[in-house]
Amino acid sequence: MKEKPFYRTVILSDIHLGTRNSKAGEAAAFLKSLRCKRLILNGDIVDGWALSRGGSWLDSHTKFIRTVLKKMEKEGTEVIYLRGNHDDVLTRFLPVCFGRLQFLQEYTLTTKRGNYLVVHGDGFDSITTHFRALAWIGAIGYEMLLRINRFYNHYRAWRGKEYFSLSKEIKARVKSAVSFVDNFEEQLRHLAESRKCSGVICGHIHTPADKKIGEIHYLNSGDWVESLTGILEEESGEFRVVNFETHMMERAIARGEKYSPTQAAAWSRIEPEEEEEALLAGSA
Known about the structure:
The longest helix has 27 residues, at 132-158. This protein has a single domain, classed as Purple Acid Phosphatase, chain A, domain 2 (4-Layer Sandwich). The protein contains ten helices and twelve strands. It has a seven-stranded mixed sheet. The chain has 284 residues and is of the alpha/beta class. A hairpin with a 2-residue loop joins strand 9 and strand 10 (216-220). It has helices at residues 24-32, 48-52, 59-75, 126-130, 132-158, 166-173, 175-194, 244-254, 261-267, 272-282; strands at residues 6-12, 35-42, 78-82, 96-98, 101-104, 107-111, 114-118, 199-202, 209-213, 216-220, 229-233, 239-243.
């Protein structure tokens, strides 16, 4: 069996544990498929806002946390948890360190290509920063949009059509949404320049990206609600924004197996210590 790939750093954000829309099972499967020196959880991992309204804590959410803890225990992975706006209850306690687990406001990642500032990014969202009540309303509205989207895609699946994201379509077509994203990215570019960094890595806006803005390398890890994307730092220092399904397909091919989306979904329910046995069975 081919050994799991190793990465210097893995960065995930916006998993929103505590909400029904969180794809925590897929996030756990993604982490189980690789090894890394450092795992950065860049904000909104646990959705405190949703939990304060009751929320939905599912078994897959607990499994994700167990997966992270087992990577620390069994693989020696360093875990850095950066606060976001949905888990901002942590702010008053930062910074705090428990062995290989750190809780921080932001982090400077030293790479072979220079320093990268890692920050969730909510500080550059004027609604979140100055109008908290409005941000709460927006979060509830987003949850409602996702619920509508879920029912709509059940209908599309029944008709044999592919998945369609209402929120992504709105972001792409509505001028104010496009302007917001552009402004957000520009502010983070200025922040990276002011810190003498080569790049900036963020989350928050659920829009994965990997591009140059001026002289700054801008990366956004996306989310685990719709995009299902994360960032990998190779041993060479190169960064890649990867999609869950594409990554799992590549892993299956590397093992000489046939890939199907149902296989990846099933993998998300396998415990780490059962994984090798399951993979051997799958290749039989």
